[in-house]
Amino acid sequence: MSALAKTIPLTRDSIFDGIVLYETIDTALLNKVINSDLLLENYQDQARKQYFENEKQHLENYQKNITKNMARVEYKRTNGFGIGRFNPVGSLGLHTIHRQTRHTIANGLLRDIDIENCHNVILYQILMHNEYKGEYDMLIDYCNNREKWREEIITAYDLENNKFSKLPTTDKRFKKPKELAKNLIIRILYGGGLDKWKEAWNVKDAPTPTKVSKIIRESKQIQKWVCANNPELFTKCKANNIKKGKDYNHKGTTTSWFLQEKECLALEEMYKYMICNGYIKDDICSLCNDGIMIQDKYYKPELLDELHTHVKETTGLALNFEEKPLSEGYENIIDKHIIFVYFFRTYLFHLYGRLFITKH
Fold first, then answer.
1. How many CA atoms lie within 13 A of 329 on its CB side?
2. How far apart are CA 283 and CA 269, in angstroms?
3. pLDDT, mean of residues 138-166
4. Which residues contact 294 (CB under 8 A, 6 or more apart)?
5. Coarse DSSP helix, strand, coil percentages of the chain, rounded to the nearest 5 percent
6. Are 3 and 226 in contact (CB under 8 A)?
7. What is the pTM of this model?
8. Model confidence at 358, in pLDDT bands (50, 70, 90)?
9. Is it the case that residue 355 has pLDDT exceeding 50?
10. Per-residue pLDDT tens for 195-234?
11. Closest alpha carbon to 303 in 284, 276, 326, 328
């Protein structure tokens, strides 16, 4: 099956290309968030920064696409690539909105269904299926004992006392210790390295755990294997990196695109199954990398096992699925953070706008 193949094409048609979907959200809470002091004043990440200066501007533009509590979202692949993930056009979708805000406006209306430990599990199954001759024992161990690995990393680098773990949970920069540990493994998988991780998250220097050293060595060889089997993809990724002023880590970038395409194959099967079985109706859902958000009222716990069976039968990938609670929002504190001069001005604008429309 193509999902387990060691190669991918440079282009592939997808049911998600140009698709328009709708996100049901709480517009009253969105308006409160827009008029609060909980927003990022300046975007730092390039993915959002290329479209918006700050979170308020981002949310106000997203708001323009909402009609009757439904946000219209169109999806496209990254410019210049005919494979991989689909993202909201113009960064206008729940997927690109910061987690705390996303949870605030979607909790109780949507459910987030994700593939557990997606890229790591897909990678080790591809290596096994294709009888990879190198070592990947640490990758398998991480997939089988993920929580234990994260705890060891948290302890080794004292992440409980990390600067970002100590921030208020309302701060968009806040990261749980296990998120920082997870990020290390993701960076290693894509060639980011230990030093860059420490620098990014202000991690104290400490002896490197033996397992971490081993998985770094394994990952470098696995990246070489992926690139050797996908030379055209490597050439394309290298050229794209250089175009962006990044003449390094081309093998890691290639591995990332390789796994994003495999992830997309699984996501397409998730989507088709949920459409055919009534979990998605009226095009109301949201694509979110390795998951799909569906309406709360159509979710059933047995869906997770159903998806496992269907995706295994159609792609060959044995993946587990989880429902991630949208529990990190501002609902309980938002009223204490509203900037009333902005909120009242918005209220008057909508009130008199409706009166003007009624009279004319």
1. 21
2. 16
3. 97
4. 110, 111, 113, 274, 279, 280, 284, 285
5. 55, 10, 35
6. no
7. 0.92
8. very low
9. no
10. 999 999 999 999 999 999 999 999 999 999 999 999 999 9
11. 276
Whose tokens are 């979710």? That residue is 299
Q: How far is CA 32 from CA 24, 63, 161, 315, in A?
A: 17, 12, 32, 43
Nearest to 277 by CA among 287, 267, 269, 286: 269
* CA–CA dist 190, 201 (Å, integer): 17
d(CA 24, CA 106): 7
Q: Identify the band that residue 283 occupies on the pLDDT scale cut at 50, 70 and 90.
A: very high
**Which of the four pLDDT bands, split at 50, 70 and 90, describes residue 2?**
confident
Provide the token pair at 303: 């869906």
Residue 16 has pLDDT above 70, yes or no: yes
Which residues lie closer than 8 Å to 229 by C-beta, 6 or more apart?
A: 6, 7
Tokens of 275: 């459409």
| Structure tokens, 246 | 């990044």
> How is 316-349 classified by DSSP, letter by letter?
S----EEEE----SSTTTGGGSB-HHHHHHHHHH
Residues 6+ apart with CB under 8 A from 185: 120, 142, 149, 215
Identity of the residue numbered 219:
S
